[in-house]
Amino acid sequence: MSGHTVGTRIPLRLKKELEDISRLEKRNLSTLLRMALENFVEQYTELHPQFRADILEAMEGVRRGEVEPYAVG
What we know:
The protein has helices at residues 12-25, 29-63. The chain is mostly helical.
């Protein structure tokens, strides 16, 4: 698989945890990170629109006085 290189900084604790997972999964760290990013993008694109719609619906209920805001209740 060809791709592009992306550089980023992560906390040492997270790097160690990712390395532990990659050893357990018998995958190299690059593959593990690619899989994690693919899963994030898939979840974000599938769930985010519904999550946003749910929030807007709840806010409309608050505006109409049907639902009490969480911060108040």
